[in-house]
Structures are given as structure tokens and as C-alpha cells.
């Protein structure tokens, strides 16, 4: 009883005293127990109509079409929109959600992958004595703890190092990071700590040693953002929400309110993007959760409505995993232009970003070369000179549009709202805009509270705190072992399935085909260097994937990790989807072309390929030109001035190496700048010049030809002037 009374006193003073009196670990365990009990009680009240199998997309469209009236129609399938749908349906409101593209196809899949309160926001709050900013950080830290709890398979704490290069900065940053821990209170993931120079380099050996005095390590959360968004949307569907992707709003439906005589929004005219079929979805209220496209829907409601969204583009790049330790991120708190850069391990790669540049609203943002090079320059500033950060190491790059907003009710319309806003128009359209990925749940709760009050809906209280998301039930850190033992999957594949699908990983494993090999028994990979397997494509269709882009970008994350690998996997992905969805040959070709266009423009493949085309000037000395021409002529025996797949295959056969013809065609196509089916000597020299400059780092043709040349030379007398240089 004394312990409980002490806890009650602690709740009143914010939790600081109890850590001193009773021990933080004891308090945390008590609070976790209470949270679990509350979660069990909340979930016991909820019915899950589709606990075993999700309704098909066709069934969802039928529900949207045939339901006489929903309580709530949410427009937008990003994190906030999906969060609103889940909040609404678990309050026993009849809920619908439509998304004109795929779930998480916009900003929600293009984040820094962090679940965080915002260290820099706290710094501003303290320096400017800004209470609103302080409360924003406190709320985000609460939501961080909740998100890590409800989706443990998709998220985890991540230590982030802040290197310090001036002695006076050590106590300054330490005080700020400790304040971050203090604001989190009992929801602090792990306590931050200071490292000596030696220990910092031991944990992050790639770090620049010169003038380093030490480092501070703090903890935030990291997640798979697109899969997290999808988990929220699928959870809403499990609880009975009618959700449909590729369903766009053409215009809003309105009717006159008999009491006020004003027109009120009562639903939306929608169109199935895939079939073109149009239908009405009627609802007592409509929630606008369209992110950067907020103003477009507001203007459907009222053409005179002023714009409140001020879009800002954030570019990220992905480079090989060897650039960072497996489990330690890096924060650059003050870049050359005052921005913050994160350098984080993610999905066995390294992600770096972000920029912050005003932009126009578009559904297809493109990463700019200037932004990519800015990030690379900032990364070089913090890494050892021994580590050469090359432009050619950028495996993927993307741009996401952050929807900063101004408050429409504010007199000063130019001031950007630091947090989010919930506004209700005269016709009853509810708009939720702005905010952060981390706070999607609390934003949804606030939106539904406002909606229920304004539209006088009969609803239960919010139940999403502690409500486990899709895949969370049945997940344990050792679940992957059962997948290996029960199905004969590779360990890496099993770990990937467990961390992507959680308890639903067994459903994916059951669909996996036998490999015909001794090991692994099941699970054919889409590409050899990534753990994605063919059965995930089939399961993606059950998760409402409609296009090949959905699979490479959001059901798997292959397009975000390596555009070249994604491009190689596309033919097989289209083949599997085509068979399952009964696509015609014309449709399969369209899907392949659309997906390659997506990779080329939105995932940085264009910037990657232009590293050769932009290097029109061949920057090689005479000795290097002679060496590379000699290498080229080993393949161009007839001195045609170009080589084809036939020439390369002939040389490879002579050294007993076999490469599939399709794979060989892809290898040459990477260098074939004018796309005439052959590689000219000038194109080859341009490639080698780009390799020399570091603009291209993993050209398969360059490596293949170098290896073949070395094998051939071993069969010949070695001349004294033979160069032993690199590629």
C-alpha cells in the first residue's frame, strides 16, 4: 500500500521523486504492468471481425459502395489517416478510408525512419523558453514509448552518437541530452552516457579522429515506416473498417442542414483508379488527412479557402552498411548550413539525411543531385579520411514532402505551426494537418475527439494507447528460430520475416515454395543479396498490393535500399503478380515500365546512371587509357570498336565462367549510354573514368572485365610493364 501511495504522489509531481525513493526500474516495471492490464482490458472489449483473414480489396470496395452511411470517412492512407481510421473503428464508429494511391505511398514511407521526440526541438524550447515546443517534445516522447510497445517487431530502440570536437561542447551537449532523458521520465528508453575518445572510436571506428574529444550517446526509436503505416491500416481493417487504396475522391458530397440551412459535407464521390468505376461513399463526417495535399481537398469543400500547407522537401540517401556500425547511429547537430543530419544503420544499410528545402506539392517528388551531394559532403566531415565516401556508393535516394502548416484560425497566416492543427470548416469538413510521424496516434485521437464533438457522434472513448498493431501478437525476439526449424528457411530470411510480419510471418512461410536444394528447404530469394523471398509477393497481394511498385517500395523495401537490385527483381515480381492477378501481357509490360520509371525518377536511379553520362570528359592519363583499351580489346577481338553480350560470353566461356544471358544483358545495359545494345570503347572509357573519380563504385561490367583479364593474363607470360592497379 505504501508503494501505491508513493506512486500516486509521483503521478502528481511528474515521476522524478519516485525514481530517487524507490528505484527507476521498479517504477518502470509497475507502470508496464499497469499498461498491460489496461491494454488487455481495452482489447477484451473490442471485437475483431477479420482476425483470421483480411477481406479482399474487392470486398472492401463492395462495403464502401453498399453501406448506406458511415459514421466517418477518412481521406488519406498515410500514417495520420490510417491512425484516424483505427481510432474511429475501435470507438465503435462505422469507419471508411480511401487513399488515391497506395497506403504510405507519400511522406509516410519517405521519413528518416526515426521514432523520436526531437532533440533539436527541445534545444529550441529551452533556449527560447517556448512552452509549446516543450510540450510537443514531451508528447512525442510519450508516443515514442507507445509505438515501441505496440509494434515491437517493426521498431526498436537505437543508440545515436553525438561526436564532440570542442571541449566546451561536451558539458553543453551533455546537459541538453540529459534534459531529453528527464523530459521522457519513466518512458526514457535507456539513459544517455558520455564516451571518451578511445571508447567512441571503438564503437564507431569510421569516425574522424582528428580533434575528437569524446562523444555522447542517447537513445531514440527506429522503425520500418512504410510497414508501420501498413500495420496501422491493416489493423483498422481487422477491426472492421472498410479501407481501399487506389480509390480517389473526385468531389465531396453535400446536403443542406435542415436546422441551419447551410450545406454540410456528407460523403464523397469516389473512383476506383484501377477499374475507373465511380461510386458514392456517404458518411456523417469526412476527415481530411491527405498530408501535403491538404489544400486540394479543402478547396473541394470551399474554393475560397486559403492555402495552409507549406511543403518542404527532405532528401535521404542509402549507402552500404559498412559505412556505419550495425547498431549505432550518428547525429551531426550543426551542418554547414545549420541543418541536422542523421547517419543511421537501417535494414543492413546506412541511411543519411535529411535536407529541408521549400518545394511544390507533387505526388512524385524527385531527389535532386545538389541535395545528394550536400548530404555526402556533411557525412565526409564526420568520417575518417581513411573512409572514402564516394558518390557511386549511393544505392538509392528519395525525397519526401513534409507538410508544414499555418493555422487557418491564426491572425498571422504567415507563421508556421510547429505542431499539428485540427480545423473544422463551416460545412463540417475536419482537417488534420502537420505534425510528426511519431505523434500520429495522438493526432488521430485529438482529431476524432474534435470530430465526435462537432458532429455529435455517439462513440466510445479512445482505445489506441497500448493497442497492439498487425503482427505484434505472437512476436518474440526468438520467433525467427521457429521459422528456421519449422520451415527450413535461411536464418537471414527468417529474421527478416519475423521483423517485418511479426506473428504473421508463419503465414508468409507457409506460402514459400520448395527450393529443390538441400538448404534452404523453402524460400526462393527475389535477389541473392537481400532476404526478400517470392512468397512475400503473394502475401503482398493479400495486403492490398495492386502494383509492382507497391511490392518493391512498401511491402518490401527493396526499392528504398538498392535501386539496381530492385530493377533486377522486377521481372520476377511482375511474373508472380501477373499470374496471381490474371494480368494480360500488355498489363505486365505496363507494370514493368511503370516500376522502372518509379525507380529511375523517384528512387534515384536516374542520378545514379547519370554519373556516367555526365562524365563526358574522360579523365584518364595516357597510361590508364592504354591499359583500359588493352582490356577492352581482349573482348573486342575483331576490333569493331564495340562489344556485345556475344563478345563477353565468348571470353567468359574461355575461362569456364557462365553467366545467364539475361543477367549479362542487364550488366551491359548499365553502361550502354545510347541504348543501342552494345558498349562502345568511348562508353567503356567513360565508365572507367567515373570509377576513378568515385562517381561509380560497383559497376558489374568493370569488375567482370577486370577479373576476366586477370584470369586470361595468368595463362599468358606476364609482361614487366603490366599494371597492378584497381578497376
From TrEMBL:
Single Gene Ontology BP annotation: glycerol-3-phosphate metabolic process
This protein's cofactor list reads:
FAD
Give GO terms: molecular function aspect only.
calcium ion binding; glycerol-3-phosphate dehydrogenase (quinone) activity
Q: Which UniProt keywords are listed?
A: Calcium, FAD, Flavoprotein, Metal-binding, Mitochondrion, Oxidoreductase, Repeat, Transit peptide
Q: What class of enzyme is it?
A: oxidoreductase
What is catalyzed by this enzyme?
Answer: a quinone + sn-glycerol 3-phosphate = dihydroxyacetone phosphate + a quinol
> What role does it play?
Calcium-responsive mitochondrial glycerol-3-phosphate dehydrogenase which seems to be a key component of the pancreatic beta-cell glucose-sensing device.
Q: What is this protein called?
A: Glycerol-3-phosphate dehydrogenase, mitochondrial
* The encoding gene: GPD2
Amino acid at each position: 500500500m505504501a508503494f501505491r501511495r508513493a506512486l500516486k504522489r509521483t503521478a502528481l509531481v511528474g515521476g522524478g521523486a519516485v525514481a530517487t525513493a524507490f528505484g527507476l526500474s521498479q517504477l518502470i516495471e509497475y507502470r508496464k504492468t499497469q499498461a498491460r492490464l489496461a491494454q488487455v482490458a481495452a482489447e477484451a472489449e473490442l471485437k475483431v471481425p477479420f482476425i483470421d483473414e483480411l477481406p479482399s480489396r474487392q470486398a472492401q470496395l463492395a462495403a464502401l459502395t453498399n453501406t448506406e452511411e458511415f459514421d466517418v470517412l477518412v481521406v488519406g492512407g498515410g500514417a495520420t489517416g490510417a491512425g484516424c481510421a483505427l481510432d474511429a473503428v475501435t470507438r465503435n464508429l462505422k469507419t471508411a478510408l480511401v487513399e488515391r494511391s497506395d497506403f504510405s505511398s507519400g511522406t509516410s514511407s519517405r521519413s528518416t525512419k526515426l521514432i523520436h521526440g526531437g532533440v533539436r526541438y527541445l534545444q529550441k524550447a529551452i533556449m527560447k523558453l517556448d512552452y509549446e515546443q516543450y510540450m510537443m517534445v514531451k508528447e512525442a516522447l510519450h508516443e515514442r514509448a507507445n509505438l515501441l510497445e505496440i509494434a515491437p517487431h517493426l521498431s526498436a530502440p537505437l543508440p545515436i552518437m553525438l561526436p564532440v570536437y570542442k571541449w566546451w561542447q561536451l558539458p553543453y551537449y551533455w546537459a541538453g541530452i540529459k534534459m531529453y532523458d528527464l523530459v521522457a521520465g519513466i518512458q526514457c528508453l535507456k539513459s544517455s552516457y558520455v564516451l571518451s575518445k578511445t571508447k567512441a572510436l571503438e564503437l564507431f571506428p569510421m569516425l574522424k579522429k582528428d580533434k575528437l574529444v569524446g562523444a555522447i550517446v542517447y537513445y531514440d526509436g527506429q522503425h520500418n515506416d512504410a510497414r508501420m503505416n501498413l500495420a496501422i491500416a491493416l489493423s483498422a481493417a481487422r477491426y472492421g473498417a472498410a479501407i481501399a487504396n487506389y480509390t480517389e475522391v473526385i468531389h465531396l458530397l453535400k446536403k443542406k442542414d435542415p436546422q441551419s440551412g447551410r450545406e454540410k459535407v456528407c460523403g464523397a464521390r469516389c473512383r476506383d483508379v484501377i477499374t475507373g468505376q465511380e461510386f458514392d461513399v456517404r458518411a456523417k463526417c469526412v476527415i481530411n488527412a491527405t498530408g501535403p495535399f491538404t489544400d486540394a481537398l479543402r478547396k473541394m469543400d470551399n474554393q475560397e479557402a486559403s492555402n495552409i500547407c507549406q511543403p518542404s522537401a527532405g532528401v535521404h540517401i542509402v549507402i552500404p552498411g559498412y559505412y556505419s556500425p550495425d547498431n549505432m547511429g550518428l547525429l551531426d547537430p550543426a551542418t554547414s548550413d545549420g541543418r541536422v543530419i542523421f547517419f543511421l544503420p537501417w535494414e543492413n544499410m546506412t541511411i543519411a539525411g535529411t535536407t529541408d528545402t521549400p518545394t511544390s506539392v507533387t505526388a512524385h517528388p524527385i531527389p535532386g543531385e545538389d541535395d545528394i551531394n550536400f548530404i555526402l559532403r556533411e557525412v565526409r566531415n564526420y568520417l575518417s579520411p581513411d573512409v572514402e565516401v564516394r558518390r557511386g556508393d549511393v544505392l538509392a535516394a528519395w525525397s519526401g514532402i513534409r507538410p508544414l502548416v499555418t493555422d487557418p484560425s491564426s491572425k498571422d497566416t504567415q507563421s508556421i505551426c510547429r505542431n499539428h492543427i485540427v480545423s473544422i470548416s463551416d460545412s463540417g469538413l475536419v482537417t488534420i494537418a502537420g505534425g510528426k510521424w511519431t505523434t500520429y496516434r495522438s493526432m488521430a485521437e485529438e482529431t476524432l475527439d474534435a470530430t465526435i464533438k462537432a458532429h455529435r457522434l455517439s462513440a466510445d472513448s479512445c482505445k489506441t494507447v497500448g493497442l497492439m498493431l498487425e503482427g505484434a501478437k505472437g512476436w518474440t525476439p526468438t520467433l525467427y528460430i521457429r521459422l528456421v526449424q519449422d520451415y527450413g528457411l535461411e536464418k537471414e530470411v527468417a529474421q527478416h520475416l519475423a521483423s517485418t510480419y511479426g506473428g504473421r510471418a508463419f503465414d508468409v512461410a507457409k506460402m514459400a515454395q520448395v527450393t529443390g536444394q538441400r538448404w534452404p528447404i523453402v524460400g526462393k530469394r527475389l535477389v541473392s543479396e537481400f532476404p526478400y523471398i517470392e512468397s512475400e509477393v503473394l502475401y503482398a497481394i493479400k495486403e492490398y498490393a495492386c502494383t509492382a511498385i507497391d511490392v518493391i517500395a512498401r511491402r518490401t523495401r527493396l526499392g528504398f535500399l538498392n535501386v539496381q537490385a530492385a530493377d533486377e527483381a522486377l521481372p520476377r515480381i511482375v511474373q508472380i503478380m501477373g499470374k496471381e492477378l490474371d494480368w494480360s501481357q500488355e498489363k505486365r509490360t505496363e507494370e514493368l515500365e511503370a516500376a522502372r520509371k518509379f525507380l529511375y525518377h523517384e528512387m534515384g536511379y536516374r542520378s545514379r546512371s547519370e554519373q556516367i553520362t555526365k562524365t563526358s570528359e574522360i579523365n584518364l592519363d595516357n597510361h590508364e587509357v592504354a591499359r583500359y583499351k588493352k582490356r577492352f580489346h581482349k573482348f573486342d577481338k575483331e576490333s569493331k570498336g564495340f562489344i556485345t553480350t556475344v563478345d563477353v560470353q565468348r571470353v567468359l566461356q574461355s575461362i569456364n565462367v557462365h553467366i545467364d544471358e539475361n543477367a549479362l544483358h542487364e550488366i551491359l545495359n548499365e553502361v550502354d549510354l545510347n541504348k543501342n545494345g552494345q558498349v562502345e570503347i568511348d562508353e567503356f572509357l567513360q565508365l572507367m573514368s567515373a570509377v576513378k573519380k568515385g562517381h561509380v563504385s560497383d559497376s558489374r561490367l568493370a569488375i567482370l572485365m577486370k577479373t576476366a583479364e586477370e584470369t586470361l593474363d595468368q595463362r599468358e607470360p606476364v609482361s614487366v610493364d603490366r599494371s597492378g592497379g584497381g578497376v
